[in-house]
Structures are given as structure tokens and as C-alpha cells.
Design brief:
single chain, FAD/NAD(P)-binding domain, about 25% helix, about 300 residues, elongated
Length: about 300
């Protein structure tokens, strides 16, 4: 079978691309190296998203689940745990080779987000020894937080939003190494109005405990502070691995992201890209941006494959 479109990646951009492709009756295969959902489910499934249209607040996991369900209902062929190894040119087709199979398509959309990624680590004493023993990089479900002393590390939107989730059920502190947060003003305002304890301009010295975390040592203004903790949640960014892009012979920016034109086309004929994996002047990484780029990429893939008279 030769698909009209193969989408690589099943995060918000990839799932949106699938939804739009099926609205144009394009036969569509979505390949995901891990589990469907991308960063929404891998890094912050419990996070509340407050700026996605039509939802005052929606949990990241639930937003992903809804996109997944919609793509499946439209008969997108979605395959998890299938990593794309090669994207080769055939005769009037593109050949996609994975760790499990070889597929043929008339067009491809690359929507791998930040590729394979791991949470950034602080690299301080006790962190590695206590990982999964009270030191974690993903906020557990709220039911697991009740009655615990939670300490969140980070200064971006995700860290603040997770701190607010935890604060709704238990004693919560947020620690940031800078004197100001880098998050959106609305999130900072909500944090300031909450019961979350803020410790700013503080350096993490160590995580302390034997079989489980018991406390955290901080340094602030030259003074050492020790705060009790039952759970330390570190949210200071991710280390992305986008090496696959080089293997796929895509033109990249200095930051290692895909160069695209305004229509989301790449340097390779019939291959388009969208979402966090692409870069262009003025790019603003948001879920809604990724979804908008996905719609554009699909329209251009449709024109490339179907060649309608109006294109």
C-alpha cells in the first residue's frame, strides 16, 4: 500500500495533522517512536493547560487523549513504539523505513517535537541516588500527593502550573535559582495568590536521605537552608535528541531544528514539517502554534499529492 501521507510523531502537531489529513480523505499513517501524546503525556501529564481554545483549563493527558480519540475515529492508522530510521526517495514516492517495517507514501510530515528527550538533571549530590525514591521529574497524580511535603524546582510555566496542582491538595514549595520567574504573567499572578511557598534566588546544594528523600539543602544569599521534603519534582527543561533529522537529510538551523518555508515545506520534495521541531523567524513554541502549523503542512501535502485544479 502507498499512503497519501505518513506523519512521523504523534504529539499535538502529529495528531492534528492526522485529523486534517483525514478531513481531506487522505490515507494516513501516523508513526510514533514511543507512546502517543508527546511531551503532553511524557513530561507533564497532570499539568493544567489554560490557554488552549475552547477549554478554560484542560489536563495535558486529557487533551492528548481527546486528540488521539478524534484521530482514531477518523480512521488514522496510528502505530506506537515504531521508530523511523530512514526516509528515502523512491520513484514518485517516499520510502519510510522503521525498526519494524517499510512503508511507502506520496508525502511525509515530520512532527517529532523535540525528538527523543530526557528531563534535564541538576547534577547535585543525592539526586541520582534518590531518583525514584522521592526525587522525580514528573508530577504524580494528585491522589498520590495528599499529605506530603512537595518541593518543585523550576521557574517556567510548567513548574509553576505543577506547583499549583500540588498546592490544591498539599503543602507545596517552589524553588527557583533566579530572582524572578520566566513564566507567563498570568501564571505568576496565580502563584502569588496561592499558598505555595516561594524560595527565590536559591542554589540547590544536595538532596538528603537514605532510602527516601527526607530534606533538601539550599544556599541563599550565602546562607544554608535545609527544608523537609517527601517529594522533590525537578522541572528545569529537557535534553532533546534530534540526531534523526540529520539522517533524514533535512536542512537544519544552527539550533539543529528543521528549516521550513512559510508553507511548512522543507528542502526535500514532498516532505513537510511542523511543531516544535521546526524553526523560523518569530517562532513561538506553543501547542496551538504546533496545531496551526500542522494544518498548513497538511494543506500543502494535499496539494502536492492530489494536485487539485485550484492549487
Amino acid at each position: 500500500m502507498c499512503y497519501d501521507l505518513i506523519i512521523i510523531g504523534a504529539g499535538p502537531a502529529g495528531l492534528t495533522a492526522g485529523i486534517y489529513a483525514r478531513s481531506k480523505m487522505m490515507s494516513t499513517l501516523i508513526l510514533e517512536a514511543g507512546r502517543v501524546g508527546g511531551q503532553l503525556t511524557a513530561l507533564y501529564p497532570e499539568k493544567g493547560i489554560h490557554n488552549y481554545p475552547a477549554f478554560e483549563t484542560v489536563q495535558a493527558r486529557k487533551l492528548s487523549d481527546r486528540m488521539y480519540a478524534q484521530a482514531e475515529s477518523l480512521e488514522c492508522d496510528i502505530r506506537e513504539n515504531e521508530k523511523v530510521l530512514e526516509i528515502n526517495d523512491g520513484i514518485e514516492e517516499i520510502i519510510v523505513v522503521t525498526n519494524k517495517n517499510t512503508y511507502h507514501a506520496k508525502s511525509v510530515i515530520v512532527a517529532i517535537g523535540m525528538g527523543s528527550f530526557d528531563p534535564k538533571k541538576m547534577g547535585v549530590p543525592g539526586e541520582a541516588e534518590l531518583e525514584n525514591k522521592g526525587v522525580t521529574y514528573i508530577l504524580p497524580q494528585k491522589e498520590e500527593l495528599v499529605g506530603k511535603k512537595i518541593v518543585m524546582f523550576g521557574g517556567g510555566n510548567s513548574a509553576i502550573e505543577m506547583a499549583l496542582i500540588a498546592d490544591s491538595v498539599t503543602d507545596t514549595t517552589i524553588v527557583h535559582r533566579k530572582p524572578e520567574f520566566r513564566a507567563d504573567e498570568a501564571n505568576v499572578k496565580q502563584l502569588n495568590e496561592s499558598q505555595v511557598t516561594k524560595i527565590m534566588n536559591a542554589k540547590t546544594v544536595s538532596f538528603n536521605g537514605t532510602n527516601h528523600i527526607e530534606s533538601i539543602t539550599l544556599s541563599q544569599d550565602g546562607k544554608e537552608i535545609i527544608i523537609p521534603a517527601d517529594l522533590a519534582v525537578i522541572n528545569i527543561g529537557i535534553n532533546a535528541n534530534l540526531d534523526d533529522l540529520k539522517k533524514w537529510r533535512l536542512s537544519l538551523t544552527d539550533d539543529g531544528l528543521v528549516k521550513v518555508n512559510a508553507d511548512m515545506s522543507t528542502n526535500r520534495n514532498g516532505i513537510f514539517a511542523c511543531g516544535d521541531v521546526v524553526e523560523y523567524p518569530g517562532k513561538y513554541k506553543q501547542i496551538i502554534t504546533a496545531c496551526g502549523e500542522a494544518a498548513t503542512a497538511v494543506v500543502m501535502a494535499y496539494k502536492f499529492v492530489k494536485k487539485p485544479y485550484w492549487a
